[in-house]
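INFO  loader      accepted 1 record
INFO  loader      residues=218
INFO  predictor   begin
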Amino acid sequence: MRKQDKLRLKIFPEGTFEKANNDDPLYYYYKPLIGLLYKYRIEQGLSLLSPPYENILEFGYGSGLLLPTLAEISPKIYSVDIFSDPSLVGKCLKKINISANLYRDDLSRIAFPGDFFDLIVAFSVFEHIYDCRSIIEELHRILKPGGELLVGMPRVDKTMTKLFALIRYKGIEKRHVTDDQKLLDACRGLFFLRRQKHVFPFLPARMGIYFNMLLNKV
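INFO  predictor   done
INFO  writer      dumping C-alpha cells
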C-alpha cells in the first residue's frame, strides 16, 4: 500500500465474521445508514495513520472485523481480547486467507517484548475500562520509541445514552464508564496527543459523538 492511499475498512459479506459476544456491534455494520456511520468512524481513525508498519497490535479485536484491513498495512498482526474466542475468529479469518496471532487473555499477562510494536490500535475499548492507567503503562512498555497508539472511542454522557437507545442499544451507561478526557489524563507523561478527529468534523468538538486520537509514545 502506498503511503498516500486512503485506508478503507474492508467489509466482507455478512456471515464472514461472527459476533464475539452479545455486546459486539458487528450487526450494525450491515444495517442501512447506521452501518455507514459505524464504518465512517473507523475510517476516520485509520486516516490518522501513516502506513506501512512492521508489527501491529489490535487491543480488543472482537469479531475480527478490522483485522483484514490491518493486514494490508503490516505483515505481522497480533490481537488480544479478554472475551473473544481465538479459534472462532481464526476460522473466520481463514475463510478470507488472513492470518493473525490471536490471544484471549489479559494484556498484562501475555508479556509481549518491550519496544516491539510500531502501532497499537484500540477502537471502542477504553470506554469500557474504568481505570485504564495500568493498561496504558503496558501499551507504553511494548511500543517502540515514538510508536503510535490509535484510540477510537465514543462520547460518554447522557445524550449518548439516549442516542444508543434509539438504535436499540439500551443500558449503555452501565458499560461506557470512561470518556476521552479521562483516557487522555491516563496517558499523561507516557503519550502525547499528535492528531485528533471527531464525528462529525463540521460540528464543534464538544458535540462530537466519536473521537479518534493518534498518540505517540514519549
